[in-house]
Specification:
Immunoglobulin-like
């Protein structure tokens, strides 16, 4: 900043006005409009200096950053920062403006910052008996400089850079030497080449334009070295390009020391500006030489043209190398059959795949479209347990980590069993509300009869699969009195009475207090015999107590139908519906059903109000009593409501006439248990709603599904056992029917 030759001293005190002790014969203020700072008044202090009164007219604090006064042919400048609060005034005393002999006019400009805006200004003028007088000030200048080489050789370029201060007050730099003529004589930095040996004094003088100055000097010794330094020069630089992605670029070089002394330097390879290799601390005597190789390992995706540089401290040589694209493998998948049937062995072949520039190291086969590769190998086989179009993907990978995929589809023919014509019986109740309801159970292309996502599909399907379609009672068996041609609809507790035959209807409570095979040896009439009695009324079907394999076929279809899940279908985080199972033991149970399959929570509110459910909408979804099968048919109370006897088939000699003749553990410790359970190793029964399990003791018969008060122990896979002659109000049953061929 140029200060001219005037001294300006400013003192601002927010809100305080210094008293003016001497009036002026002519005094006026003009201008200062449109700004946030105004000159409110002025006068002469007791010391005879001009005093300005500044006012902040803005709505926030103002920072005064400078004042410039012109008059008498002179201009004085001041730069500082002073604050004036909102609505306050501050006084400024100008020591370089004194009382004069006559009226004079000075131009005044005030610079300030306010509200985030900087370098604002407002100007005006003042008139009175004063004048601008001269004054001399020493700002404390201090000269100094630095050099990049204090002992240069003749011919070396030496750079001199000022370190003088304060830089803001310096207006000029002057360089000189009594021993030589400098190449440059002004500027904050200069460069000079000394042509010969000798000691040279170099002076720097700085001044502020106000008559103040400071000087500094140093002696620069210029002398010739007797021995030249080490000088590593490169030659014979060459590469092995072009290369292919994944190969190594090798750059050969020769380096010699052309200097007069021994030395040690790094030889560096940069590729496209990035260091890739270095031979560290290569040592050479004067006139010595050696050779070496620097390397860059390329990777897949590095195809392109690259510039490289081999460098020492004294020399560098550049070149260009090409990296060609790597050809990966090409996958080719084929199958040996076009439309296999369920259970057929399908062979998948990847021998048509090609390797490209590498070698194929692995084959992965996803045979069911789930994104996981179930098999590895060039040729694999698989059997599908359900029909439908199956997506197959082959992934081949080579030793360069490049891969390729190929896809195909397999149209698996179902050979699905189906049944038609529901069972009808010679003795049946009249009235539409009592028509017997039976549900066909058939296989489906979308639902396996085998294990689902959670299970090993390879070993245990025979324990629950059935060879043909069949019918099951849509509802739990209800007691129909042949003698009175009516139902017992009050409690269902008719026990082992031969007067009754089972019917599948929505109305009335389930037949209960019945044993498995006859609690009284004299009448021998239990659930097994009740279904046999119904069988005697038809020639078209084999009617019998539902077998465990038939039960598990329905249970698996329930498990694998998404509508039966409250959340996350068929996932370990999901919850399967478990029927009415959160009831109180003392509730009026079990419940009758509804003829509307959409009313799956029928009766729960009325029969179990102790749970606090105030409306059907408040009943949890996992209490739903309807279960959808693979073919869209619906069965009621496959879990919850009441335990149901099932006929355990002979499994390796473990049962006789549907009764266990040896203890069977249902904890997954032996294969026969797979006939009865949901795999316990991967499922939490309380979380997933699949049902609890207990061991089957020798001499017991099996019961499935759970009860209205079991809570999270109920479920379609729930399994318990009891003595077959036991009659219990907690036990009911249902029948199944297979068409007679």
């Amino acid at each position: 900043m140029t200060y001219g030759w005037m001294l300006l001293v400013v003192a601002i005190v927010g809100g305080a006005i210094f008293s003016v002790v001497q009036s002026q014969s002519v005094e006026s203020v003009s201008g200062f409009s449109g700004g946030d700072v105004t000159v409110d008044d002025f006068g002469v202090t007791s010391d005879g200096n001009l005093q300005l009164i500044l006012r902040n007219s803005a709505g926030e604090s103002v920072e005064v950053t400078g004042i410039e006064i012109s008059g008498n042919g002179n201009t004085a400048e001041w730069s500082d920062t002073q604050s004036i609060g909102v609505g306050e005034t501050g006084s400024v005393t100008l020591n370089s403006v004194e009382e004069g002999d006559g009226a004079n006019s000075l131009d005044v400009e005030v610079f300030y910052d306010v509200g985030g805006l900087e370098n604002l200004g407002v100007s005006g003028s003042i008139s009175g008996n004063f004048e601008v007088v001269s004054d001399s000030i020493n700002y404390g200048l201090s000269a100094g400089y630095s050099v990049n080489d204090s002992s240069p050789d003749p011919g070396d370029a030496v750079e001199f850079t000022s370190t003088s201060s304060p830089v803001s007050e310096i207006s000029s730099y002057s360089w000189s030497s009594p021993d030589t003529t400098l190449d440059e004589s002004s500027g904050e930095s200069i460069t000079h080449v000394f042509g010969s040996e000798g000691s040279y004094e170099v002076n720097l003088t700085v001044s502020d334009g106000l008559g103040n100055s400071s000087s500094y000097s140093e002696i620069i010794d210029v002398s010739s070295s007797s021995v030249s330094p080490a000088d590593f020069q490169l030659s014979g630089v060459s590469d092995n390009g072009p290369v292919t992605e994944g190969e190594t670029v090798n750059v050969d070089y020769t380096v010699s020391n052309d200097g007069g002394v021994s030395g040690s330097q790094d030889i560096v390879l940069d590729v496209s500006g990035a260091q890739e290799d270095v031979d560290s601390s290569v040592s050479l005597s004067s006139d010595g030489f050696t050779g070496g190789t620097l390397s860059w390992s390329t990777s897949s995706g590095d195809a392109g043209s690259y510039s490289y540089t081999v460098s020492t401290e004294n020399d560098s040589v550049s070149g260009t190398v090409d990296v060609n694209s790597l050809t990966g493998p090409t996958a080719s998948a084929s199958k040996n059959v076009t439309q296999p049937e369920v259970g057929d062995v399908v062979e998948f072949d990847a021998s048509g795949s090609t390797s490209g520039d590498g070698s194929i190291t692995s084959y992965g086969w996803d045979v069911n479209g789930d994104g996981a590769y179930e098999y590895s190998g060039e040729v694999v086989t698989h059997s599908y347990s359900s029909s439908g179009t199956k997506s197959v993907e082959l992934n081949v990978t080579d030793d360069n980590s490049l891969s390729s995929t190929d896809s195909l589809s397999v149209d698996v023919q179902s050979g699905s069993v189906s049944v038609s014509g529901a069972p009808s019986f010679s003795t049946a109740p009249s009235g539409a509300e009592y028509e017997s309801s039976w549900v066909p159970v058939t296989s489906s292309s979308s639902v396996k009869n085998g294990f689902d996502y959670f299970f090993d599909e390879t070993s245990d399907e025979e324990y629950y699969n059935v060879s043909e379609g069949f019918y099951v009672m849509k509802y739990e068996a209800k007691p129909y009195n042949n003698d009175s041609d009516s139902f017992d609809g009050s409690t269902g507790e008719v026990g082992d009475s031969t007067v009754y035959v089972p019917r599948s209807v929505a109305a009335n409570k389930p037949w209960r207090d019945i044993s498995f095979n006859g609690g009284n040896p004299n009448n021998g009439y239990g659930a097994v015999q009740a279904c046999d009695a119904l069988d005697s009324q038809t020639d078209e079907f084999d009617v019998h107590l539902i077998t465990n394999r038939e039960w598990m076929t329905v249970a698996r279809q329930v498990e694998q139908t998404d509508s039966n899940w409250v959340s996350d279908p068929q996932q370990s985080t999901g919850q399967l519906i478990r029927g009415w199972s959160d009831g109180d033991f003392s509730a009026d149970a079990p419940l009758s059903a509804s003829t509307s399959d959409s009313d799956g929570k029928a009766g729960i509110l009325e029969e179990d109000s102790t749970n606090g459910w105030s409306s059907d909408g408040d009943i949890p979804d996992h209490q739903n009593r309807t279960f959808e099968l693979a073919n869209g048919e619906v069965v009621w109370d496959w879990a919850g409501n009441i335990n149901q006897w099932v006929y355990a088939e002979d499994s390796g000699g473990s049962t006789t006439n549907g009764v266990f003749d040896s203890t069977v553990a249902t904890d997954g410790s032996n294969d026969p248990a797979k006939e009865y359970e949901y795999d316990p190793a991967v499922v939490d029964r309380s979380t997933n709603g699949v049902g609890g399990e207990f061991d089957f003791d020798s001499g017991d018969a099996a019961l499935r599904g759970g009860l209205w008060f079991l809570g999270d122990r109920a479920g379609v896979f729930d399994a318990v056992s009891d003595v077959p002659a036991t009659s219990n109000t907690l036990y009911g049953f249902r029948c199944s029917a297979v068409p007679v061929s």
